[in-house]
């Protein structure tokens, strides 16, 4: 497979070697193959590994099967995919509630399998949503872009915003939960607030609308712990409606929806912002 990338960032005094290593995060072994096989061209010309790249240069990378072996997974149903955005490297889809982002077993079919069928090639999970949660999910279309997207996620450069319908009302319009989260000692499905051994977890909350007994809120994450929003809200006496794990009387679907995903595309520098609609979520607010 061959990828063509036009340099949008004026990487100061960056060589081809540094570009592939520090910006594209291509593994050392694969960089070696690219160099020895002369599979890197700049502006359609073979170059020295120490050549400088400049704004507007076009980098052409050719990968063989041995560089990124094809990962075969069962094909899902392409018609189940609600595509919000896609280009050569990424695809963002709207996951329905009740569907896993990826399977736990090699033969299990989940959203990843449906997306791969829709695209026509094996895709890769960048981040996941709980099975009960609906909304925007980002997938990499190839293994070349995957570590670049993972770095964006680690650096908090991919912003995710969630809507939640929760019990009760709030005294403040905005607040932040910072309680660390750890594993439940007796129930492997659950997470708990663990001030001694838990991992750092930060959830920003903004109240959108108060109803008679519930509140619609927007949550934005600085960290991505398992069940983070669900644990923070339930611990602070505002469990999410319909939560089968953290609400004492769950009814209907889990009222948590990833309604917005935004970031700067690492290769094109295009600003990507998608909004995911959910009829089953919206119908509960009427």
Question: Could you characterize the architecture of this molecule?
Answer:
The chain is α+β, with helices and mostly antiparallel strands and 286 residues long. 17% of the residues lie in helices and 29% in strands. The strands form three sheets. Strands 5, 6, 7, 8, 9, 10, 13, 14, 15 and 16 form a ten-stranded mixed β-sheet that branches. A hairpin with a 7-residue loop joins strand 11 (181-183) and strand 12 (191-193). The protein is elongated and about 65 Å long. The mean pLDDT is 90.
The global form is elongated
Number of strands: 16
Order of helices and strands: EHHEEEEEHEEHEEEEEEHEEH
Biggest sheet statistics = 10 strands, mixed
Averaging pLDDT over every residue, what do you get? 90
Instruction: Count helical runs.
Output: 6
Secondary structure: helix percent? 10-25%
Strand content: 25-35%
Keywords:
286 residues; alpha+beta; ten-stranded mixed sheet; four-stranded antiparallel sheet; 6 helices; 17% helix
Please outline what is shown here:
The chain is an alpha+beta fold and 286 residues long. It is built from 6 helices and 16 strands. A hairpin with a 6-residue loop joins strand 15 (256-264) and strand 16.
Topology:
Layout (H helix, E strand, L loop, with lengths): L1 E5 L9 H8 L4 H9 L3 E3 L2 E2 L11 E5 L20 E4 L3 E6 L15 H9 L4 E2 L8 E7 L5 H9 L4 E9 L6 E4 L3 E3 L7 E3 L9 E8 L3 E8 L6 H8 L20 E9 L6 E5 L3 H5 L3
Parallel strand pairs: 8-15
Antiparallel strand pairs: 1-4, 2-3, 2-4, 5-6, 6-8, 7-8, 9-14, 9-15, 10-13, 11-12, 13-14, 15-16
């Amino acid at each position: 497979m061959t990828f063509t990338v036009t340099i949008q960032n004026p990487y100061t005094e960056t060589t081809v070697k540094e570009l592939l290593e520090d910006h594209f995060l291509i593994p050392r072994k694969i960089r070696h193959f690219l160099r020895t096989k002369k599979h890197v061209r700049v502006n359609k010309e073979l170059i020295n590994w120490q050549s400088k790249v400049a704004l507007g240069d076009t980098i052409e990378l050719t990968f063989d099967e041995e560089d990124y072996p094809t990962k075969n997974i069962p094909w899902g149903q392409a018609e189940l995919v609600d595509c919000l955005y896609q280009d050569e490297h990424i695809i963002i889809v709207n996951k329905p509630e009740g569907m896993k982002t990826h399977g736990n077993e090699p033969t299990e079919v989940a959203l990843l399998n449906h997306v791969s069928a829709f695209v026509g090639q094996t895709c890769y999970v960048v981040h996941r949503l709980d099975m009960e949660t609906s909304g925007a999910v980002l997938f990499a279309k190839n293994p070349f872009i995957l570590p670049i997207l993972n770095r964006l996620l680690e650096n908090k450069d991919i912003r995710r915003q969630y809507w939640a319908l929760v019990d009760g009302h709030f005294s403040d319009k905005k607040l932040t939960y910072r309680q660390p989260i750890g594993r439940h000692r007796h129930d492997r499905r659950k997470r708990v607030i663990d001030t001694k051994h838990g991992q750092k977890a930060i959830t920003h909350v903004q109240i959108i609308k108060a109803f008679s007994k519930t509140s619609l809120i927007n949550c934005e994450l600085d960290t991505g712990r398992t069940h983070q929003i669900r644990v923070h809200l339930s611990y602070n006496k505002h469990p999410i409606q319909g939560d089968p794990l953290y609400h004492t009387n769950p009814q209907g679907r889990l009222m948590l929806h990833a309604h917005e995903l935004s970031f700067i595309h690492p290769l094109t520098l295009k600003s990507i912002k998608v909004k995911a609609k959910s009829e089953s979520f919206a119908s509960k607010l009427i």
